[in-house]
Amino acid sequence: MGLAFNNKKKKKRRDGDDVIILDKVSKTYTTGVPALNEVSLKIRKGEFVFIVGDSGSGKSTLIKLLLRELTPTGGRVVVNGSDVSRLKHRQVPKFRRNLGIVFQDFRLLNDRNVYENVAFAQRVVLTPSKQIRRNVSRALAMVGLAGKYKAKTKQLSGGEQQRVALARALVNDPPILLADEPTGNLDPKNSWDIMKLLEKINTDKGTTILVVTHNREIVNAMQKRVITMKKGVVVSDEEKGGYIDED
Amino acid sequence: MRISTFFYTLKQGVVNIFRNKWFSLASIATISACLFLFGLFYAVIANFQNMIKDAEEKVSLTVFFDETLSREEIEQAGEQIRQREEVSRIEFVSADQAWAEWAPKNLPEGWDEVYLENPLVGSDNYEIYLKDVSLQQEFVVWLESLPQVRDVRRSEMVATTLTGVNAIVAYVSLGIIAILLAVSVFLISNTVVIGISVRKEEIAIMKYIGATDFFVRSPFVIEGILIGLVGSGIPLAAIYVLYQKAIEYVALEFPALTGLMQFLPVEGLFHTLLPIALGLGAGIGFLGSFITVRKHLRV
User: Fold this and answer.
1) Which residues of A touch B211 (CB under 8 A)?
2) Please, which contacts does A89-97 make with residues 24 or more away whose CB atoms are closer than 8 Å?
3) Domains parsed from chain B with CATH numbers
């Protein structure tokens, strides 16, 4: 399925299906230490991919490049057909509307209720009010929180808060969902629930899903494509792969 | 912009004020304090300038004409003077009128038995009041160039002093107002920085979701403008009440002063102060929030 330039299993594929392309991407911060060093990989539409690696391996930099929070110092990052280095500041909001993002710390607006948090993403893209009500109800139903739309986020468990974040990420129907350590703050049961939910979204809606994680059990159990990074380079890219130990 | 988005932004601006009520109160208090000082200062300056203007209006020139001129010719010259733009008011004083006014005040009793005829014959004159006393010198040069004019009498010192005082008051007031405004913008900017820092996370989330700079900025800017308007409304109300009380107090306790100086009515004062203070409050709030939120938009 997916193909990286450094991977072990290479298959024939069509470039037109790639929604994420990294071509010899490097990123060096002002300290001079390269966070990414000539990383090349391609992710196809509808894929479910894990990105694993230790702290400092370049995973977070990769996500920031995909979000266009950073621009590469070398190479090319193409997301949904847009070269992120060429995007002007005013074009970034529209570009990001095609990306759903979920963080480890949920990043919810704690002074608003569940409904408002999800509706917030729709308001940002100027969706008409009637449509917001319909879309938010559907997104909350999808993550199993239809009955809690009035609850304040602080009253929810960690797993539920992550579901709200997921509903917010999905309500605009993005073709790509980026999840940065989505289970990092959750217990094993909730972690599994979130992963199953992501898998369901991937299967049912065809959303391309990229999950950055440290969760060995989940990665090994789910048998998805696994890209392993170490010190800013891709050291492994396997279909139905597993978590590679450092040793 | 959709109407629903406009109302959402407006609502968020109002909600922001209540959500961060302590910061909002701090901002309102800062703007109120600065604009209260501004308002007080403005009231003093406006009254002072009003008094100077009154004094200027009482400064007159007296112009005498060639003794051979007939009354009709003098009136024609008077009409010529009246047409000048600098002239606020002009009054004809005949020689008889001048003598009748001057003699009883300055001569011992029985003067009318000594002076059987008016010694001021041929002294028909005009008293001229100017709109702006600083124009006196130029105007006198013009008057003296008229062939009918014999002499022009004026108080050079009064005119110069009033013009000087007026200029000093204008410069000092401009300086103090500029300092007050700079202090306001600095204090507001600081308060807004703290307020926005608290909401840095919210701004970051908006940006990640795909909000435009305009969408992110609008509620903060509306919040800033509303805080500015409330912050200027409070001192305006306070000054309105205090000013009226002050005028009443002076009139009651120092009646002698009311003869010397004429206070501006509160409506007259607020005719200018109200739009200036509201504009300043909204402007300070707008600038403070616009500049500050800009720093947090680069996500």
Assistant:
1) 93, 124
2) A90/B212, A90/B213, A92/A68, A93/B207, A93/B210, A93/B211, A93/B212, A93/B213, A93/B215, A94/B210, A95/A68, A95/B210, A96/A67, A96/A68, A96/B207, A96/B208, A96/B209, A96/B210, A97/A125, A97/A172, A97/A174, A97/B209, A97/B210
3) 3-55+161-295 (no CATH), 60-154 (3.30.70.3040)
